[in-house]
Design brief:
- The protein is of the alpha/beta class and 658 residues long.
- 52% of the residues lie in helices and 8% in strands.
- The chain has helices at 3-26, 35-59, 63-69, 71-90, 97-116, 119-147, 159-165, 174-192, 203-223, 237-243, 247-254, 256-268, 274-287, 325-333, 348-358, 369-372, 382-388, 406-413, 434-440, 442-445, 470-483, 489-514, 536-543, 577-585, 633-651; strands at 305-311, 335-337, 340-341, 392-397, 417-419, 452-457, 521-527, 556-559, 566-568, 572-573, 608-609, 614-616, 621-623.
- The strands form three sheets. An eight-stranded mixed beta sheet has the order 5-4-6-1-7-8-2-9, sandwiched between helices. Strands 11-12-13 form a three-stranded antiparallel beta sheet, with no helix packed on it. It has a two-stranded parallel sheet with strand order 3-10.
- The longest helix has 29 residues, at 119-147.
Amino acid sequence: MNKKEKSILKKIVFSLIMLLLVRLVFFLQDDTSDVIESILRWTIFVGSVSLILIYVKFNIESVKDFFMKYQDKFILVGLIFWIDIAFKIKNSLELTPVYLFALLLILILIATFSLLIPKKASKIFDISLMILYVVYAFSQDLYYKIFRDFFSLREIVNAQEGVESAEGTYYFSVLHILMFILAVLTITKYIKLKRTSHISFTKANLKMLYKAPLFLFILVNINAQYPINFARLHLSDHYLYSSMYDKEQFVTKFSTVNLLFRDLKVIITPSFSINRDIEYIEDYYDNNVKLHPDNEYTDVFEGKNLIFIIGESFDSIAVSEELTPNIYKLKTEGLDFVNHFTPVFPRTTCDSEIIFNTSIIPSITDGPTCYVYNENSYSESIAELFNNSGYITTGLHNNYKEFYTRDLVYEGFGYDYFYGQNEIPLTDTEIRYDSVFGEKTLDYAIYEDDLFFSTYLSLSGHSPYEETNLATVEHLDSVNEYYGDTYSDTIKGYIASQIEVDLMVGVIMEDLEAKGILDNTVIVFTNDHYPYALDQIEYENVKGIEEDYEKMRGVLYIWSSDIEHAEVDRLSSSFDFLPTMINMFGLDGNYSSYIGNDIFCLELDPIVYFKDYSIYDGINHYSFSETSDIINTSVIAIAQANYDLSQKLLSVNYYKKE
């Protein structure tokens, strides 16, 4: 490249930087739909693409010769490039100006690394990466179809449980077939190549190799989104890249392959911030004390027993006086929280268990809480608070207790006992019937002469909702007779599966009454997550759902024979369960220790937290990456602090029992 060509490139880069400065100084978007700012961004993008084409023309005399010389590397990055583009199109992810340059940058870095390592290692690296990436993209596409989000590699530790939990949710699309065909053809072509390109570690070669990545790095930053001020730091692409607070936004801006390598970096990079995190936590608590005045429900259940039932995939569409009379009784005779949310976090049920028992936001970036932090303990958990009040605390589940390492997790929660399939015991057929589960656990969970707190985690409502689900088959005729053609076969199969948990509630209530302690026992019923295994379009139509976050609307019923029925329309979520129980049972807990609040404490504003770092305040739902007139920066600040706080609480095992 001669001086004239270099001068042309410098002038173009200078012009783009000037346009960026004009955009930042005069037209940076802030709560407005600024047409000029948008035009400037896309002008910079078009100029950047033109710059790449000119750069290639000036630096590569013969494109054909260059391609043939490094054919194996073009095959490697080409496969990743086209799959990533297809992935973006298939999942309707927004095209952003920074995306192309971020994708090209990571691909050039991959090719550069492969060129510099020994030839034999390079070949192994290339083939392994192609296979890994295809499997990764395929898996992410399946996951995104169900959860509208992307998983972390840290979740590999519970891959077996994930596969079992996802039964009935698999689907195959044209993209998957094309990915498979393209991968087979590409890898076959690569293997047939007789030469492996390589560049030695010489000063001249290294000087040549750093130019293209540096060039693209500049273009990434020229096309990136910047915040207007520190209060809106969350709008920055740089903040998004460093924090990965929203994986969907991350993939939209930077590509799936960038997520893969960024995730790998986080996994292999050790953390040395324990002391700093502890200081952060203590400083946070010192400056954020929650004052909790008494309210009309304070101590209303003091001295009573508590049975807490978590219905697997339960949803309000399954509630009817005819088919689920026991749950209907809880709903219509007790407190019905009509504005309640059960947000889904990366590891669904086990994350909900973390929330119910600790009121801490589960791990989002560090991997599954039930694996990564299964040796943590919680001195402020609900089980420990009941233990301190003289209760016998018991956890029960009709799957084997090692699933999601619950044998360790519930020990950390502080339960006196935890019974799974093998301890009860239940056969592989019996575990699919919650009614049988309920009958066989009565003596483990209900005590006549002692106060007790027992948590039931049901299973019958788990997917699939067809002939392989014994609970569905058992009750499908009743559902067909009741609903006729009102619902599809899939929805009716789902409702049929939920009848078992209603029967379990009936079994428990009958036993309480027979033992003469029904009047001294409170029953709380909720769900662990929405039925994500159902066809989501069909589910959304039945529920009238317009936004994804609305799927998280759950159920919460609090029943006691002496409580007056009421519909509670105050916003609430799973995080609020524990603080609310503290208030109602008169437990000795510190409200400041929890992310959630007592639902009946009107002095504290409720916030629902979601795994994509978005929040809902009862009126508006917004994520950290949005700009709008409705954004309350103080609420955003509180939410960000609580996400950070929870991550640190888990990582340092702050509430470890002595």
